[in-house]
Amino acid sequence: SARHQGGKQYAVYDAAVHAERLANTQLVADMHHALDAGEFSVHYQPVVELATGDIVAAEALLRWTRPDGTSIPPMQFIPLAEQSGAIVAIGGWVMAQVCADLSTLHHEHGLSVTVNVSAHQLRDPKFAQSVLDLLRQNDVPGSALIVEITETVLITSVVDAATSTEQLQTLRDNGVRIAIDDFGTGYSSLAYLRQLPVDILKMDGSFTAEQIEQGAAKDLAFIRTILELSRILGLQTIAEAVETATQADRLNGLGCDLAQGYHFARPAPVATLLDALRQRGPLPVIAVGSVV
Ligand code: C2E
Ligand code: MG
Ligand code: MG
Ligand code: MG
């Protein structure tokens, strides 16, 4: 009967949920060893100036490779790291790695690096000072660092929001720029713009990629509006997940300054980024689907 079938489906679903929970519990346990075991690495994706194709910055993206060579995607382990609190230690490691890499990337190539920072990290009243210490230890100016935050930063509580804003302000007072990541997807993105000290909007990939390719009037209107808002507020805009030349051309035509995406380059180890920078020629355009 239908009822019986429904019951069975529910049982199957329940077992799947249970299996996923077990797997997640194992991942959280593994994550604690992974940091000490050196299983994490930072990859960099170039951010280019659309008008010239010059690499001006790079986004640091965390990678986790298990001893057996398999990789776990950030979308799978970062939410778990957030829930378990492991993101604070892992994020601290990412920042230390980035500041060390910046001593070459910034001093030799004038690059800035943009780093994803979790709401948990910003809740630590010593966060900003720890970042400034890392910058100083590596003789890197604050202007070489961009901190990316998402809307989760202020959601948690009023106390956290005050601490987080203060941390961001301290960083900004020292030249560090603040970017709002995935802009256009959060229900309260506009509220963040009003409350937080912000320098850069990162226009979410899901928001730009396919739509702009079609050139649909309504979709272009949203992109134009974000770019216009950016201009009025004196912010820079980085378009994310640009996958084709058509998208890059349209964004350039619409006045968007900066972009990143598979059309330009995939995230890769720092050595690959340095190779691209040292060639000094035009930026190698890597086709979608190719592996770096
Ligand atoms: P995000 O910060 O929005 O990063 C951009 C994501 O888009 C990256 O996924 C990048 O590999 C991917 N991407 C780049 N170009 C393209 C493109 O042309 N098309 C498409 N479809 N995707 C593209 P990734 O590396 O898997 O990271 C996923 C998310 O994990 C990041 O999204 C960020 O929210 C989070 N994350 C990554 N590293 C860190 C980290 O060190 N700390 C924290 N807290 N979060 C991180
Ligand atoms: Mg990001
Ligand atoms: Mg993003
Ligand atoms: Mg994202």
Automatic annotation (TrEMBL):
Domain EAL: start-end pairs: 24-281
Superkingdom of origin organism: Bacteria
Protein name per Swiss-Prot or TrEMBL: Diguanylate cyclase (GGDEF)-like protein
First and last residues shown, out of full length: 463 to 754 of 756
